[in-house]
Every structure is written in C-alpha cells, then in structure tokens.
Amino acid sequence: MFSWLVRTASACWGSVRRYALMSKDEDEDDALLWSRGIGQHSGGEFSIAVVQANECIEDHSQVEIGPGATFVGVYDGHGGP
C-alpha cells in the first residue's frame, strides 16, 4: 500500500545516516542498532538510539521542538511479516 514511501525512504536513508553522524555500537556488529551521542541543539542537548525490527525501514518518527514543549512521535508502518 505504501510501497512508494518505503522505496523513497530507502533511497534517501544512506544519505541521512551519513550526514546525521550516526554510529553503530563498537562492541556489536548489528546493522539494526545505531545511535548518536549527546549533541547540541538550539533547544538544548539531544541524543538518539534506534533499534530496527527488520532490514526494511517501514516505520517513521517525528520530533517537534517548541518553546514550551517537545513532541516525539513514533509510528509503526505495519509492513512487516
């Protein structure tokens, strides 16, 4: 149903990971686990860790930062087995 979105996201994902300075855990050789340490943002510090359920990235997330609140949304794509 959303195969066009998956193809578009997959095509862009290599660039996103390269420019977002993500790194895999040094002790593990798991391509589905990656993270970014503490970084600076105009709203404060942030960090991120992601564990993918499968090779095909079908889920997406959203972060909205405002002066009074931060919204974090994680959405399941339901495209897996």
TrEMBL record:
<dbReference type="GO" id="GO:0004722">
    <property type="term" value="F:protein serine/threonine phosphatase activity"/>
</dbReference>
<dbReference type="InterPro" id="IPR000222">
    <property type="entry name" value="PP2C_BS"/>
</dbReference>
<protein>
    <recommendedName>
        <fullName>protein-serine/threonine phosphatase</fullName>
        <ecNumber>3.1.3.16</ecNumber>
    </recommendedName>
</protein>
<dbReference type="GO" id="GO:0043169">
    <property type="term" value="F:cation binding"/>
</dbReference>
<dbReference type="InterPro" id="IPR036457">
    <property type="entry name" value="PPM-type-like_dom_sf"/>
</dbReference>
